[in-house]
Structures are given as C-alpha cells and as structure tokens.
Amino acid sequence: MRVAIAGATGVLGRRLVQQFRARGDHVVGLVRSASGEALVATLGGESRHVDLFDAEALARAAAGCEVLIHAATAIPVKARPRARDWVMNDRLRRDATRALAACAARIGARLYVQQSVIWVARPRDGTFFDEDTPPHPSPPSRSAYDGEEIAREAGEQYGFNVAVLRCGWFYGADAAHTRWFATQLRSRRLPIIGQGEALLALLHLDDAASAFVAASAAGQSGIWHVVDDQAVPVRDFLQDFAARLAAPPPRRVPVWLARLVAGAYAIDFFTVSSHTSNARFRRACAWAPQFPTFKEGLAQVVASWKATGLAS
Ligand SMILES: NC(=O)c1ccc[n+]([C@@H]2O[C@H](COP(=O)([O-])OP(=O)(O)OC[C@H]3O[C@@H](n4cnc5c(N)ncnc54)[C@H](OP(=O)(O)O)[C@@H]3O)[C@@H](O)[C@H]2O)c1
Asked: In the chain, what are the domain boundaries?
C-alpha cells in the first residue's frame, strides 16, 4: 500500500509511519519543516515539505498514494485553554480537511481516513452512546464534527471511501497531555473533581495507530468509535496513575470550585461520562487493542518513563 500521512511527525503520526513501514507499506509523510523531514526519514518514511492548506501542492506531494490519512491536530495542552488557543486546531480540522479531501480526489485515492473524536457525539447527560447517537458537539469538538462532514461529502462527490475514526482520549509516554498529567499529579495540582465517577474513554496511542492501519487495510467507508475495552472512572484513573508515579494521592475539590479555577471545558471533560464501545470497529476492521484497559497502558507508559529516567 502507498500511504500519505498529514501530521506524520505527531504523537499519532510517528506511530503510523512506524506501523505502516513494519508491514512493508510505502509511507509519504506530509511535513512542514526540515526537522519534520528528518524525523520521518528516521522512521523509515519518505517526506514531502508541503502546506496542509494548499490542495494543489498536496496533490503533487501525495501523487501515487492510494490512502490519505489526516492525523494533524493542534490541541492546546494547558490547564485552561481559551477560545483563541483552539483556532489552529479548528483550521486543521476544517480547512486542511477540505484541502486534503480535494487532494484525495485529484490523486485518485481509494480511501481517505479522518481522525476525529468521540466527544462529537457524547450526550450531555453522560449516558452510553455509539455511532448511531445523533452528534451534538461541544464548542471544542465542533470543528472535528465539521471535518467529518467535509470529508464524507467529498467522498460522496468524488467517489472515494471515507473512514472516520472517532478516537477516545489518547495517552502515551511521549504525549504532551500524558506528561502534563504526570507533572500535575506529582505536585498534587490535578485533583479529583466532585465524586470523580464520570467515565473516561481512553486509547493508548499505539492502539490508535494500529486502528488507523486496520482501517486503511480494510478500505471501507464508515464512522467508528475507537476506544479501549473498558471505560474507567476519572477517580480510579487519577489514583492509579498517581500511585504508579509514587506521587501523593490526588486531592478532592468540589465541582463549583474547580469550575472557577479550570473553566467549563476541563470541568466537562472530568465530570461528564464518555461511555462508548469499540464493538463495531472491532468487527468492521478486525482490530483489537494491545492495551485493553488503562492498567496495562499506564504500566507501559510508566515503565517507559522509568527506562528513560523521566519517572523519577
Ligand atoms: N483523541 C485525543 O485524545 C487526542 C487527539 C489529538 C491529540 N491529542 C493530544 O493532544 C496533545 C497535543 O496534540 P497535538 O495534535 O497538538 O500534537 P501532536 O500530535 O504531537 O502533533 C500534531 C501533528 O500535526 C502537525 N501540525 C500541527 N499544526 C500544523 C500546521 N499548522 N500545519 C501542518 N501540520 C501541523 C504537527 O506537525 P509539527 O510536528 O510540524 O508540529 C504534528 O505532525 C497530545 O498529547 C495528544 O496526545 C489527543
């Protein structure tokens, strides 16, 4: 298979390059810097320096590829992101999707794969949801949903398949959010909000990458939820993570106080359940997570930090 990847230098993209190369596929990483070119080469891919918002340049860069993957995001990593912190992420979700979908049409790709997030369909009351649940994105996930629609409409118009992978919350040893969580837990600045009973739907980044590879091999159109096998209460996740880091147990703060300090987005994330299932994706694309729950995944993350001296 010949695969072009936008965001090939990111936490997901780097794994994609490695996993496709391990299968013997040819990878073209679409990058925006000399350091990005060097990184993709290190991982065994070919790189092309190109602007993700320029459909014509993209078509030249990705010519000959059968599969095009959009894994570029710019998600703010800070305690209290403001609206302006989401602007580039929104542009990547909407404008870059438009350009990449136009590129897919021009190069005659058979499949376009879009990274999205499960939160586009999470009910406000925290009840279970699946791929049939009507979307009602919150402001931070609105552009992810728009990106899904832009890609699907382009696929229908130009005749290529579109696979949308709505991923759960990524974690991994090299993920900025995971490292930020560890730093906050060590200094007891990441509390359990309220009872901490809301469910988190997690996905180890190695499993996220294997899901994109499985969807690319399957080649079908569809929208799928890609999460691990068992959602976990926020309280259990934070307590377990802190214990693995030998950090003190997280404090508890009431919801009203956390709302004042952290703002609505963080409160929503930690207090409204994200409860969905990977059952349809498993069946459609013959995928299974290597890290079925956060326990196996965090064990790997912390072991990796210890091996590199980052956990002390
Ligand atoms: N479902 C989820 O939970 C989810 C989804 C996405 C991200 N995250 C998390 O959010 C954190 C930050 O993620 P991130 O997406 O900012 O970082 P990232 O995954 O490390 O990198 C994103 C990729 O997008 C590229 N990119 C960003 N802005 C671009 C632009 N304007 N033009 C072209 N390419 C661009 C980056 O290229 P450069 O290397 O050139 O910057 C990189 O290849 C990570 O911890 C990640 O795990 C979570």
From this structure: 2-172+203-227+275-289
Q: Tell me if the pTM is above 0.70.
A: yes
> Which of 73, 117, 184 to mutate for ligand 1's pocket (most ligand atoms within 8 Å of CB)?
73
Tell me how far the alpha carbon of residue 241 lies from the centroid of ligand 1, in angstroms. Answer: 23
Architecture of the domain whose range is 2-172+203-227+275-289: 3-Layer(aba) Sandwich (3.40)
The phi and psi torsions of 162 (rounded to 5 degrees) equal -130, 120
The residues of the chain scoring below 50 in pLDDT are none
The SS3 assignment for 65 reads coil
> What is the position in ligand 1's atom list of the atom closest to the CA of 115?
5
- Ligand 1 centroid distance, CA of 137 (Å): 20
